[in-house]
């Protein structure tokens, strides 16, 4: 029975400062590093052995994966990084303080931007200096698909092709897979594999640094879900 583990990166420097982050490549905070190591200890305690790891192209997720794997003695396993597991792009909100935005635009508007399934944040244009179009790590992406802002729906639509092409085939081959990613790329995957409605996904949150372990059957149905 394959195991699938999701882990949201540990607390980042911008989580700590309460800033919208999205595709901005911030580091883990000291607490975030500790959370990632603790996740590794829990995975070791649970005796989970991985065959394959996937992560985003953002430092906070990559380092979380590495701390967790190192702590569980599995830093050697194959890993792949993909932009498709990146955090949802927060558009022009990136770098803004969440509390200050709520004071300016109202709690309700900010909640809609953060948790609605299909409302887009204010977009960042491709010529904005913060645009991902200027970032070397996305140079191999068709400029037409470099986002200027994403909602959960758009995030899900770019995460699922990666699930279909890479993650699901690994699981079907009986491999245990760990995915270290982000609050919203993991909410998108959670919505997809648990078949959560557009309305109910608004209430689903991912804690930083907490492994979520799924046992799947050979048709990838969920047999058990446990948070460590
Ligand atoms: O990108 C961000 O700001 C956070 O990592 C996730 O944000 P959220 O809690 O607003 O979804």
Key terms:
EC 5.4.2.11, binds 3-phosphoglyceric acid, alpha/beta, 228 residues, globular, Rossmann fold
Question: How would you characterize the overall build of this protein?
Answer:
The protein has 228 residues and is of the alpha/beta class. The mean pLDDT is 97. The chain has 7 helices and 6 strands. α4 (98-105) crosses α5. The protein has one domain: Phosphoglycerate mutase-like (Rossmann fold). The longest helix is centred in the C-terminal third of the chain and has 21 residues, at 152-172. 3-phosphoglyceric acid is lined by residues 20-22, 87, 90, 114, 182-184.
Q: What gross morphology would you assign?
A: globular
Overall CATH class: Alpha Beta
Order of helices and strands: EHHEHEHHHEHEE
State the domain count.
Answer: 1
Q: What is the assembly state of the chains in this entry?
A: single chain
**Ends apart, CA distance between termini:** 19 Å
CATH architecture verdict: 3-Layer(aba) Sandwich
Low-confidence stretches: none
| Structural category | alpha/beta
What is the assigned CATH homologous superfamily? Phosphoglycerate mutase-like
Range of helix content: 25-40%
| Spatial order of strands in the largest sheet | 3-2-4-1-5-6
Q: How do you describe this structure in short?
A:
The active site is at 9 (tele-phosphohistidine intermediate), 87 (proton donor/acceptor). The record marks 182 as: Transition state stabilizer. The protein has 228 residues and is α/β, with parallel strands linked by helices.
